[in-house]
Amino acid sequence: MSKKTILTIDDEIHILELLRYNLESAGYNVIQAESGEEGLDIIENRNIDAVLLDLMLPVIDGLEVLRRIRTNPETKKIPVIMLTAKSEEFDKVLGLEMGADDYIAKPFSIRELQARLKAVLRRVDDKDDDKEKNKVKKISTNGLEIGLETRTVSVNGREVEMSHKEFELLKLLAENPGRVYSRDILLEKIWGYEYIGETRTVDVHIRHIRKKIEEDDSNPVFIKTVRGYGYKFRED
């Protein structure tokens, strides 16, 4: 897999160098811009996978840069994380409403920033994967049938009712047979950041799903437990 290229736009040199050092250490390619104009020029002429964008930029501020990224058909899908010294809720809401994918206030934790960057990049990759997977109308295995468009589940011809979260969880696992998901990743993908750490939520939903689709939920055939880590779907 090729390295992801991250564009950092900030007028503070020490912030740019801090980001460069840590992101390159994490395996990313990094391109720097010290102004909104320079950043927009790079975005239009280079292949960029994600942008770390400071809000308080001279001449063209971060929100205007974000607006231009989102209104350009060629760049509108690039993930953007806003970086700012401001922490007022108004700024956060405004940035997100204008299309920012995430928001982090200075001073920030490098580990948190890397985690958020990884998450937005993964969402883009997952969307690309979904485009391919959505060409498949249903998943069928060992009597279990999952209708991806109809959002229906049946076992040996018997329809099973699923809650929204149960269906999304089953669908994610079934679309990726054999791939092991940690509880935290499942929480992030199905429930979002606010549930991170509440891994019992995943266990409860898996238990409910098993009761509905497994002949013997104490000896599951479809959703396997990976002890001490998470879950995976059977591989045919």
From TrEMBL:
<dbReference type="InterPro" id="IPR011006">
    <property type="entry name" value="CheY-like_superfamily"/>
</dbReference>
<dbReference type="Pfam" id="PF00486">
    <property type="entry name" value="Trans_reg_C"/>
</dbReference>
<keyword id="KW-0238">DNA-binding</keyword>
<keyword id="KW-0804">Transcription</keyword>
<feature type="modified residue" description="4-aspartylphosphate">
    <location>
        <position position="54"/>
    </location>
</feature>
<feature type="domain" description="Response regulatory">
    <location>
        <begin position="5"/>
        <end position="121"/>
    </location>
</feature>
<keyword id="KW-0902">Two-component regulatory system</keyword>
<feature type="domain" description="OmpR/PhoB-type">
    <location>
        <begin position="136"/>
        <end position="235"/>
    </location>
</feature>
<dbReference type="GO" id="GO:0006355">
    <property type="term" value="P:regulation of DNA-templated transcription"/>
</dbReference>
<comment type="function">
    <text>May play the central regulatory role in sporulation. It may be an element of the effector pathway responsible for the activation of sporulation genes in response to nutritional stress. Spo0A may act in concert with spo0H (a sigma factor) to control the expression of some genes that are critical to the sporulation process.</text>
</comment>
<dbReference type="InterPro" id="IPR001867">
    <property type="entry name" value="OmpR/PhoB-type_DNA-bd"/>
</dbReference>
<dbReference type="InterPro" id="IPR001789">
    <property type="entry name" value="Sig_transdc_resp-reg_receiver"/>
</dbReference>
<dbReference type="InterPro" id="IPR039420">
    <property type="entry name" value="WalR-like"/>
</dbReference>
<dbReference type="GO" id="GO:0000976">
    <property type="term" value="F:transcription cis-regulatory region binding"/>
</dbReference>
<dbReference type="InterPro" id="IPR036388">
    <property type="entry name" value="WH-like_DNA-bd_sf"/>
</dbReference>
<dbReference type="InterPro" id="IPR016032">
    <property type="entry name" value="Sig_transdc_resp-reg_C-effctor"/>
</dbReference>
<dbReference type="GO" id="GO:0005829">
    <property type="term" value="C:cytosol"/>
</dbReference>
<feature type="DNA-binding region" description="OmpR/PhoB-type">
    <location>
        <begin position="136"/>
        <end position="235"/>
    </location>
</feature>
<keyword id="KW-0805">Transcription regulation</keyword>
<protein>
    <recommendedName>
        <fullName>Stage 0 sporulation protein A homolog</fullName>
    </recommendedName>
</protein>
<dbReference type="Pfam" id="PF00072">
    <property type="entry name" value="Response_reg"/>
</dbReference>
<keyword id="KW-0597">Phosphoprotein</keyword>
<dbReference type="GO" id="GO:0000156">
    <property type="term" value="F:phosphorelay response regulator activity"/>
</dbReference>
<dbReference type="GO" id="GO:0032993">
    <property type="term" value="C:protein-DNA complex"/>
</dbReference>
